């Protein structure tokens, strides 16, 4: 029996879009982000001029909507709290403990948003290549290991980055640290977290662009990923400027560090707001 023709797209080991001919005719297209973010698969019926979207069942849609709302809310709040902490640091309207408390509360929100995003990928409905063009809902899972999937790897690295940031945020409450301890306990985890955020964002761009990153201004998902990646770049700029010089005991540039954090945090808040409109 002849197998239905398939066309796979992606980059390296990552499959981000799959097109095949269902047994009943026509064409079915599984798009990674469209499937796990919105619970949809595209179907071109035989002889039809326009495509239609086949959705997941009610259980999967309710699950994805709940996780999407949690993640979006968490990123909006986390970004706002980080921006507030940076504003306090920049304009001197509070002490170091106030800044650390705002950053720590924002970090908890980022932990929540990263965890919810990972759960959304883990529990997204799956496609059946060669089938009729439908998404199948699986039982609820708290964890999985799927490093060859761009969506899983991107959200896993994002969640790992939020956990590394937690080390930095907890250490910022410590008093009487030497310059070496500040750079080791606060600055180094900050840098690692920023690198993980950048890697996660790049993988998200690879997923939505099905290969090399490019401009897709008509896709809401692309704007969400692009705005978040801009936030990651600004966080990295802030982290580089926040290195404490061993000789002087001062930051390389406190203004750049604060403004980088503030603007980067606002990017994550904006991405969270846009995510509300990408609901399943």
Give a brief outline of the structure:
This protein has 280 residues and is α+β, with helices and mostly antiparallel strands. Helices cover 59% and strands 11% of the residues. The protein has helices at 32-38, 58-91, 96-122, 150-171, 179-209, 220-241, 254-275, and strands at residues 6-11, 14-20, 27-31, 40-44, 52-55, 126-127, 135-136.
Characteristic terms for this protein:
280 residues, 2 domains, 11% strand, elongated
Note the topology.
Blueprint: E1 6-11, E2 14-20, E3 27-31, H1 32-38, E4 40-44, E5 52-55, H2 58-91, H3 96-122, E6 126-127, E7 135-136, H4 150-171, H5 179-209, H6 220-241, H7 254-275
Q: Can you give a write-up of this model?
A:
By secondary structure, the chain is α+β, with helices and mostly antiparallel strands. The protein has 2 domains: about 5-55, no CATH class; about 60-280. Helices cover about 60% and strands about 10% of the residues. It has helices spanning about 30-40, 60-90, 95-120, 150-170, 180-210, 220-240, 255-275, and strands at about 5-10, 15-20, 25-30, 40-45, 50-55, 125, 135. The protein has a 5-stranded antiparallel sheet. It has a two-stranded antiparallel ribbon with strand order 6-7. A hairpin with a 7-residue loop joins β4 (about 40-45) and β5. α4 (about 150-170) packs antiparallel against α5 (about 180-210). The chain starts with 5 loop residues before the first strand and ends in a 5-residue tail after the last helix. The model has no long low-confidence stretch (mean pLDDT about 90).
